[in-house]
Specification:
Elements lengths: L1 H9 L5 E3 L14 H5 L3 H13 L5 H22 L2 E3 L1 H4 L15 H24 L1
Parallel strand pairs: 1-2
Length: 130
Amino acid sequence: LHILVSIARAQGAKVVLSSFATLNDPALDYFNPEVFSQLSERQKTEVYALMHFTPGLTSKAIFDGINVYNDTLRKVALQEQTGWVDNASQVPHADKYFLDRVHFTKEGAARMAENFLPVVLEQLKVSTAD
């Protein structure tokens, strides 16, 4: 990630990193029957699909990995002094925002754009001050 940021900057780009937003909240215990019963049908289907596409991993390992990934992105953004958008916490884990576990609906894309806009504008402002 540090190298990618350096490559982008070497070409004159301003960098904004973002955490990974998903339909399923990585903080939930999906094998808790009470938690599972409160999920939408899409969320249930996507948990099953996730387990199918990542055989050998538990849901806890998968969601812990997403949390580690997002934390790593945040740390790199701080170290590299890039823009940072925590979309994982700003985009609700709701059907309205996702077509599946990772692809956005029109509302989800709009929410992402709203989250990115102030950070991108700040990066551009810093750029013109340089």
